Amino acid sequence: MGRGERGIRGRGTAGRSARVLSTCVIVPAAGSGTRLGSTDPKAFVRLNGKSLLAHSLETIISSGVASTIVVAAPEEFLMRAREEIDSISESRHDDSGTGISPIRITAVAGGNDRIESVQLALKHAGAAEIVLVHDAARALTPPDVFRRVAAAVRAGAEAVVPVLPMTDTVRRAESRPAPNQLRTNAGPTDLQPRRDATASRGDATASANGRQVVVESDAEIDQDLPTVEVLYGDLDRSSLRRVQTPQGFTATTLRRAHERYTDDLAVAGPGVVAATDDAGLVERLGVDVVAVAGDEEALKITYPLDLVLGEHIAANRDATSRDDTIGDAANDEGERR
To answer: If you count Cβ atoms within 10 Å of the first and of the last residue's Cβ in the chain, which end, N or C, has fewer?
Structure first.
């Protein structure tokens, strides 16, 4: 077994069956860490002493749902991804001889975007009947969410996503020209480029927020008007859901969805058939996407505030785990006496 492809004996509490053992979990790990203030991909940002990728892999292993995990990382970070895999392999290796099949973890070079990375990872999914796709940025997703998604696919759903209800008021926004009062009465922070009083009509200079804008005529000023977002109506949040990962699919359905996307892309060109997740691609096939319960702790770590909250959650989990370990050791000692 080569470097970056390691066998790990699972220790998850979920029961394992033949169908569970034919489940591959794909982890796209190429998202930018720019909004977190990192020059490295988001998956390698550290949270409570471990990378987001390491947290994700440990959770997948402990969930007991996977026989194969494929990490799709930027080519220049493949070595880093394989080091994370090796570290987890060494820390979780089990020589108990229980006969539990090992989990195979592979790191492969991803593509130019999330969809291409999943397509490349699918080539390494082997004969898996079920594929789960999980964002490394949702590193704190509890194991039970993986189990619920996998169980729903095994029960007959072709596509499954974990969701949470929408709690915020949601409105639809459209860009419109800024109201007149914003153009003329906003003072030193006025949004509109306005004609300088000393400028000639044919070669005017407008000022907006300290920015000088050269215009050719009054008509060009009109074309450079600022816009604002105008909000329309409350959407019925009772029917809206926040979508999380892992998203689960029958392998056949997911492959069909990606093949359809590739065909559409060849005809329509980039940007025309864009999708934000795999469930969106599957939906285009006319397949129902079934919802199961998500978890508030499965937050997507995107901004520094998310990292602060994630640190708190991870620290609490580690403290609870230590307390449980100490309690178990005390109980064992008591039984021996």
So the answer is: C
